[in-house]
Amino acid sequence: MGNGVATADQVISAGISGNCLSRFAKSTAHRTVHFIGGLAVLFALWWIGIHFITQNPDLSQFKDFSPKAAVEALPELWEDGTIPEALKTSGYRLGMGLLLAIVIGVPIGIMMGRSRWFQQLTDVPFQLLRMISPLSWEPIAVVVFAGWEEAIVFLITVAAVWPIAFSTAAGLAKVDPNWFKVARNLGAKPWHMVSKIIIPAITFDIMTGVRLALGVAWIVIIPAEFLGVTSGFGYAIQDSRESLEYSNLMALVLVIGAVGYVLDTACVLLINRFSWHRGDK
Amino acid sequence: MSIRGTEIRIEGLSQRYPTRKVPTFNRVDLVSPPGEALAIIGRSGCGKSTLLHILAGLTKGTEGRVLLNGTEVTGPSPRWVMMFQAPHLYPWMSVTQNVGVGLTFARWGKKEIEERVTEAINLVELQEFAQANVQDLSGGQQQRVALARSLVMEPEMLLLDEPFSALDAFTRAALQKDVRAISKRLGFNIVIVTHDIDEAVIMADRAVIMAGSPGDIVHELDVDLPDPRERTDPEVQRLRARLMATFQEAANYKKPEVALAGAGR
User: Where does chain A have alpha helices with state H?
Assistant: First the structure.
């Protein structure tokens, strides 16, 4: 390992990082174009659809569904507190539900991945439970829990726990058994296997599970808030429908989509940040 | 770093798997004095790797025992550390973190870990790569990290299971010499399992040959050569030829019928 070699390495790596930089700039430009282009196409189709529908005088009330009406309704909904309030309450329910799902799902996933016996025993019941729409539990949840608030958090947890558990188990199945052998050889205790080997090794898989769970939970939370509660995005949608404020309804739909997109993007950024897998970044 | 060697005493060690009729090896006895570098040579399947795993406490023998300075080996311990064929580094840790992982298991203080790790990294000459991602290192560098990870525990005995077989010839030669030099400087025992005659001649003070089914130690040869050892040295070549001849003789070795009858129980 002479100095000459190190210098050559530095030169090569500098060349590579230079290349990477220009490639990064290019890919960012590409992504921006796709981002704006894709959104423009979506809005154009929306606009054209409403435009043609409202050509028919009998259907003129549909003009409230247009992108223009929706965008115009946004500032008002923000200022009267509807959107900030919904962000806060729905966000809290989502966060609590996800947190519980992680607390329950990760240990279940670890047990599924570590114990063949547990995996075989639970495979059928878990696959069966997974296929039940979380909303089917709503009537039961309302009876079991004291308030609607807890019931909604429960529904989100039920929706989010499966992707997390299965992703954790799948991650664990891929863990190199030699990592355990080396750790044992260096004097690791059983809890070290969990804290120093298993958890860091599968953080990527857990977070991928959380990303999937977040997607499902965000979809489930809207209908879950249709009933019982007087806050959150689901309630706001229901409220605008009942008061026939369709421009508000469309504005809320836009916000729901945007929030989901932002949350998912944040997950992807976090996954890339914490991933040790090469080629994921 | 101050490491002392240990007397390794293998007494009547046998290993048989319930599914197999013939034991892997039967009543092996072997003594290695403190600080000795011992090579166990044999063809694949003769049980040499299993023997090493028992020495490390990672597997249990069916009969017999292993004593280190009179204490029986009953499980893995940081006092005897094994290096495997592949480095098996933790890809989410830096070089420094990988080297120090055994010390964190032993709940060492942050500062002491840092000191020891720095020392171990210097020993394997990876100073420049201390903060590197292990996935960016070459195979040889990764195996050096694995070596430092073992040395940081200051083991009395370093067990090597064909640790350089996956490396290119140049890297392999450099590491063989380095590991021997470090062991001689610090004084710990080495037990290396290999099927590479050259490796035994370059690294060991003594070579034993395992052969037969069930496996047994059929020959041993003192590798009484001055350091540093060069492959091209006529003395090294001569010893290599002798070891090779003994090895080939051993390949045709058959255990006396009496021993086999006893083993077939």
Answer: 3-53, 67-79, 82-114, 116-130, 138-144, 148-173, 177-185, 190-192, 199-224, 233-242, 246-274
